[in-house]
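Friendly challenge for the regulars: who can give me the structure tokens for this chain first? No prize, just bragging rights.
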Amino acid sequence: MDSQHTRRGALALGIGLAGALAGCLGASSGSSEPPGSSEPPGSSEPPESSASPTPSTTADDAAGPPAADRSPYMAYEASRLRDATVSGGVPKDGIPSIDEPSFLGTSAAALDDREIVFGVVRGDDVRAYPQRILVHHEIVNDRLDGVPVSVTYCPLTGTVLGFERGATTFGVSGTLVNSNLVMYDRATDSRWPQVLATAIEGSLEGRSLREFEVVWTTWGRWRRRHPDTEVLSEDTGYARNYGVDPYGSYTPTVRGYYDRESTMFDPLATDDRLGTKAVVVGARTAAGAAAVSMERLRARGVVDAGLGDDRIAFVHDAALDAGHAYRVPPGVTVESTTDAVRVDGERHAPDALPFERRHAVEAMWFAWAGFYPETTLDA
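First reply, four minutes later:
Bragging rights claimed.
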């Protein structure tokens, strides 16, 4: 597979291979055998029609995570997704979330500039979560700008998303759908596929989470943009070798899961418009889903997509090598320049356009196309 199509292969530090799988398919500490995979039941063909979830109203509402004001598009009924849910080979909480995170300043962070980090800015809080730590835990229950949140990462789908969690915390259920992490909240035990941000099982079925954007970038890029950032410490309370990624590496010189075309589990649907693990930046509205390949976005700077009556502009942030998404009014000109984005001729930073933000989700193509088989794609 061409290294341009793998997730930032040329940017990341090679970490090496391990015998045991962790992350979304993780093995608990001390295990040396990879858990077996099983095929999710159900057809790999797209559904005949889309379904819009209806938020639940139950006595668990106060204890569970807060609900989003609007639910994102879902292509499948919850029952279909439950039928397609499979074991990831570990029990519930077999991959332990980090519930009491600690942080370091930049001078104390022993990170190479090429290492992948997941960056968040909320209010006055600026934090980086190293991929090499989250690959062993998948969920960090944190507090940002005074708000309880969870930063979540699924290695099998290459997706990182942030959610408000309210008075509860999220944990790793040990199951997957479309190869994607299925979280559970510890207040109601409802089940939440990470990419969908919507419960498919439990008393909160149909409820969608409040999301916030998490940026996939490298330590050097993030540190230069945010020199006062805090960094998640390896002092997690768990004995893990954070220098080893059980899936391989994002560097093209080390082979592993990220580099191979094959997946460990069958996707909900297949789409050959891109390579299986090509990186896309996706956005969803109530009307549907749209995506652009990262390769295309890097080359163009700005890519427009139509979703029903909405116009979505994907914008490349060259300093972070990340994508943002905005809902843009008709008739407005959005153009990329060498160091900024111009809106009707006025200069703006790529992460600060004067429009409504849509949550940009970077993902492996097979995962995005599996969850959203009718997605538009600019490749």
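The mean pLDDT is 86. Residues 219-225 form the longest helix (7 residues). Your move, everyone else.
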